[in-house]
Amino acid sequence: MPDIESFKKQALDELIELLKIPSISTLPEHEPDMRKAADTVEAALLRAGMTRTEQIHRANHPLVYGEWLGASGKPTLLLYGHYDVQPADPLDEWKSPPFEPEIRDNNIYARGATDDKGQTWILVKAVEWLMKRDGKLPINIKFLIEGEEECGGEAIEAYVAEKPAQLAADAAIICDSEMFAPGLPSICIGLRGIVYGELHVEAARQDLHSGVYGGAAPNPIMAIAEILTALKDKDGHILIPGFYDRVVKPAPAEAEAWASLPFDEKEYLEKEIGATAITGEPGFSVFDKTWARPTFEVHGIRGGFVGEGAKTVIPARAVAKISMRLVADQRPDEAISQLKSAIAAVTPKGVKAEYKFLHGAGPSLVNPDNKFIHESALAMEEVFGKKTVYIRSGGSIPIVGLFDTHLGIPSVLMGFGLPDDNLHSPNEKFHVPNFYNGIDAVIRYLERLGA
Amino acid sequence: MPDIESFKKQALDELIELLKIPSISTLPEHEPDMRKAADTVEAALLRAGMTRTEQIHRANHPLVYGEWLGASGKPTLLLYGHYDVQPADPLDEWKSPPFEPEIRDNNIYARGATDDKGQTWILVKAVEWLMKRDGKLPINIKFLIEGEEECGGEAIEAYVAEKPAQLAADAAIICDSEMFAPGLPSICIGLRGIVYGELHVEAARQDLHSGVYGGAAPNPIMAIAEILTALKDKDGHILIPGFYDRVVKPAPAEAEAWASLPFDEKEYLEKEIGATAITGEPGFSVFDKTWARPTFEVHGIRGGFVGEGAKTVIPARAVAKISMRLVADQRPDEAISQLKSAIAAVTPKGVKAEYKFLHGAGPSLVNPDNKFIHESALAMEEVFGKKTVYIRSGGSIPIVGLFDTHLGIPSVLMGFGLPDDNLHSPNEKFHVPNFYNGIDAVIRYLERLGA
């Protein structure tokens, strides 16, 4: 039996191997990597002492399930993570290649380091340590590790809806969020939902010469620009009719707690964003804008000529990737239909516009007054030596809504990422001390729940 | 000596070989194809009886020059064409591959068929026929065939400015435009200029997670959309201050002639454009919009995620390819500075925008009252059996302005393309009878000038 420090170092070595697998769920050519990553996770669950593991196939990429149910009379916790990662482009902005993990300045750099392989590994390794040390676990454990978090989560959505009895638990722990600041233990109690889709605009039958037809022919990229600017004004206010109707303001106590969080707007702008100004709706704080207000964003426009040099073409069609982040109590289905109506109302003359929904998830807001969240807060306070703060995240973890709807359980979002971890960006990293402290905190959490 | 019909069929076979060369001047990987195409053209000029040929290197791709100056006391004509072609994408919209010429329904389909290899070949083959038939030419001939028409024309611009004596001529003939309608001989007396460049917008230092930062971070694609819509309104009116100040209205006689051209707006919309409506400035005819009014177009936007599926990224930067078509008496330099000022004035908060000029050319408007245009009109009337009409083109042929400025000569734009030739688009074609009649018309033109 190694000591805990050696054990954690070995856990890091194993994480490095997992990070080498380019398990990009959204790109079909990485299918073999997805299988390899799923196998690696399943093997790790077996090593952690799970008495039964299984790869569940429902959509594109397998769910990895593992259980140990030997703590009779104790609570059952569902442990969630994901082994898939975001695409790594633009590749030329990485200082070290995204799938060749490198440790620099006590950070491990790789795609998926923080989102979510590193954090998934915290859960797996905390359980493995307890099992190795005690030969048993203090509570019952069910792991559910998915491979489609970055591409819509179709498999887990189907499985959770289909097998609530199999997944029955008292609470879920999700390790896929971040601490508010280095060293400050944080539990995320609110997440934005998302509706992601494509805006397809068709103008002419085929690409046209911009000299011969320019002035008389519709331009689909210009049409997209007109639609986008008609849906969101320069101040970041979304103009989709009815869109804000269900938006709930943060409770006064929550808003007050946010105001006392350590936050330097100048540093946020300069170090995290690196733009010339913070933008968005006037009169709202950064916390409001990113945690409590919905968004409308464009992620890319395909169509037309983007190579080197000049091509004088009016493209026949163009596609914009667009998303809306939703907050409580907005509903994805309603937002989609509001968006579709708004697009129809502002589509300019000469073109046809069609919205194609790709994936969505509702927002979530957890009431922090329950034992699973309290014990988590106390476990982190023990390890980090600071009072745990309740925060929200602007991102979307669709599984929280699924667990609530189908299993009727609260989710505890214990996150160990840091705000500058560059998730979804080049040079994604995970702070190694947070990896180690995360393992300690989850060990203490499971111990406390079993006490 | 073959008869003229056999000669023209053989000319078509040779054209097919030329069309097989993917001489895309704008893409560096086609450099060897550019050299091969230049060599093919030079060899054809030698076969046509030129006593001296030369490949001139000034910028990226060689100019091919050839001369026969044996008609003492007769006029000298400068014959212009280009051997480079536009990129062929989107490839999947071609019915036959762009560089595997195929004849269907009396049309030859290939990239460059009409723009401009087919039309260049008309000039070369008309000269070759006269030389073969008579052992001499009725007038003096200088060929100048460039390889950078689709990528800015840097080489020819330098050479014409540098060697006006070498290129001295009485007029130029440019075979790179279209007939107004099938069977209707046309001379183009007006061309729009162009200013083509890139709008670079930089927002954050690197790509950001749209969940974590969405609502507070600037989005460069949205910024481009805001800039584009601030520079052109929904009616197609360009909002760049001062932009229309120098725009000259067509003379009443010209406007009247346009009104009597055979033109069916419904057919134009349905067969040529294939969109749901003609767009552009209210109160202007299609001829006004495409011949006599300037444009502002976006050709593509690079930046962000455009692959399959979803990536929730706010890109750090984005680039739009944009152009302005200019009409007499607008000036490229002035338009560029107006555009730059306008961009600076409308750039939204949080981002930096920079305009990078790529290439430009002034507009041109030729006075049709001169012998070189008259004889061309009469030669075409002989061959096509219909009165020649004077039209304009919305496209840009920068060389017309260069010949005017540096050589002081008028350009005769005898075009044999057709409006549905799909130039710059998939399924570009050239009508084979126009190729044959074009050779006949140029033969008659040279004979008339020498008479």
**Count of the domains of chain A:** 2
Tell me the distance between the termini of chain A. Answer: 24 Å
State the CATH architecture of the largest domain in chain A. 3-Layer(aba) Sandwich
Rg calc of chain A: 23 Å
Shape of chain A: globular
Biggest sheet descriptor of chain A = 9 strands, mixed
Average pLDDT of chain A: 95
Which strand-content bin applies to the residues of chain A?
15-25%
Largest interface: A-B, 99 and 100 residues
- Which structural class fits the helix and strand makeup of chain A? alpha+beta
The quaternary state of the protein chains shown equals homodimer
GO molecular function (chains A, B): metal ion binding; peptidase activity
Pfam family, one (chains A, B): Peptidase_M20
Keywords (chains A, B): Hydrolase, Metal-binding, Protease
Domain Peptidase M20 dimerisation (chains A, B): 189-350
